[in-house]
Amino acid sequence: MEPNSKPSQTVVLHATLGVGHLIPMVELAKHFLRRGFAVIIALPTSPISTADILASSNPAVARIVAANPSISFHNLPPPDYSEPDHDDFQQMLDVIRLTAPILLTFLRSLPSIAAVVLDLFCVDALDAAAAVGVPAYFYFTSSAGVLAAFLHLPHYFDTTEGNLKDMGKSLLHFPGVPPIPASDMPRNVLDRADPIGASLVYHYRRMPEARGMLINTYEWLEARAVTALREGAYVLDRPTPPTVYCIGPLIVKGEDAAKGERHACLAWLDAQPERSVVFASFGSMGAVSAEQLKEIAHGLESSGHRFLWVVRSPPKDPAKFYLPRPEPDLGMLLPEGFLERTRDRGMVVKMWAPQVEVLRHAATGAFTTHCGWNSVLEAAAAGVPMLCWPQYAEQRLNKVLVVDGMQLGVVIDCYDEELVKAEEVAKKVRVVMESEEGKKLRERLTMAKKMAAEALTDDGPSCMAFAEFLKDLEHSK
Ligand code: UDP
Questions:
Q1: 215 and 328 share one domain
Q2: How many A from CA of 21 to the centre of ligand 1?
Q3: Which atom of ligand 1 is nearest to the CA of 356?
Q4: Which residues on neighbouring strands pair with residue 213, listed in sequence order?
């Protein structure tokens, strides 16, 4: 875990908060490595165990670290901090903020740094980068549309009154994105009095101070949002918006998993007809209640379609869905006789499936997803239509983008209520797998897949954007 040495070309990536942020950061690190840079991924460490979902002790993080020996991961020492009454998310934001001076000490200890690339939640590290005279860029690991909406929020709050939580499904009109129902904005910004929301808005206000913003997307997918970001439509008081570089889709390559043993679900997929399987999985933390698991089971069963379903134990406390959970007891959680009855056309996987390979498999025909951005990108790049069932963070916004903007999926209705009924699950599976609407979606996905592949060719727009970024980095000296 020690920094590796290639002093004049070292890039420090400051990552945070969970697997969904770390995976694309690691992919970015590989991009730098391929171009001869040395890379250090600097991770904050929390003195409070509940806030430490990124700790090297977290099994998912440990797996990512172990799978990438060519990257130096550096655990920054924990700051002095104790606010046991704060919400876990607030604790994490506090810890990251208090880590900025620690990062500065670390940066000063390095002989020479080409750039610092920051995760969304690390705005205070801008000061550390400025103090050592190193250019700072953000790497936004969600969609360009979400970034456009987030960056507009400070202006929105400065120029309006009242709370989003009182607006129900009234539509918000932000530059570059389709109209967003107020209730689809992230939970923490719904109430101005929410201290976490205030902290997030502080982040969005400061992000444009960076020299540039890398985004894990490709232009074809989000042309409108990218244009709005380029024009700085969100920052009315800043003459020159930071340059935007769409460098995605940066996705874990299938061969990473191929190094290990092939997962049994891939062999199962091999035996299924082309485009016949509905894959259902809800991200690295997927939190579904016991009652909801049963409804999903009934829905998948009554749809009549084949399915591959990743099941996790329901969280003990739904508000703490991000804490590690034990393996699920399928016999207890799933309806009686379900596994028997669906044995010929369904497979249930506990905890984790090699999602990228599953999505790329010819047998996969649809993806029921929580709309985490990595999942959306992986589905778009694999050409698989989505059944959108957003759960937490910015996923409802991604749902709006996927369904209303990109037209790559359908919504599972009642996602914002306590329980989605089996009938809705079955209905939407049929819409995507059997209907004319599903056929149109697949056509659009075929294009999304083609454009994703093109974006990453040597002279494709995303590779060119990364080359432009490297040029900018060079000129910043
Ligand atoms: N993932 C996976 N297998 C699983 C669950 C998740 O490989 O069973 C990967 C998935 O491919 C994606 C990441 O974990 O790269 C999840 O990121 P996303 O942004 O979709 O959601 P988050 O976990 O951040 O909510």
A1: no
A2: 10
A3: 11
A4: 138, 244
User: Which residue out of 19, 26, 120 has the highest number of ligand 1 atoms within 8 Å of its CB and is therefore the one to mutate?
Assistant: 19
What residue type is 139 in one-letter code?
A: Y
Domain carrying residue 346 = 264-453
Segment 356-404, tens digit of pLDDT: 999 999 999 999 999 999 999 999 999 999 999 999 889 999 999 999 9
Centroid of ligand 1 to alpha carbon of 448 (angstroms)? 20
259 is a domain residue: no
Q: Please report whether residue 3 resides in a domain.
A: no
Distance of CA 445 to the CA centre of its chain: 20
> Would you list the DSSP string of 194-247?
-HHHHHHHHHHHHGGGSSEEEESS-TTTTHHHHHHHHHTTT-TT-SSPPEEEE-
* Tokens (6 digits) for 12: 């420090």
Asked if residue 467 and residue 328 are part of one domain, the reply reads no
Tokens of 38: 């040395």
Q: What is the largest CA-CA distance in the chain?
A: 66
Shortest-distance atom of ligand 1 to CA 378: 11
In a domain, 467, yes or no: yes
Q: pTM to 2 decimals?
A: 0.94
Q: Give the helix, strand, coil percentages of the chain, each rounded to 5.
A: 45, 15, 40
* Interface pTM, i.e. ipTM: 0.99
Give residue-wise pLDDT tens across range 173-189: 999 999 999 999 999 99
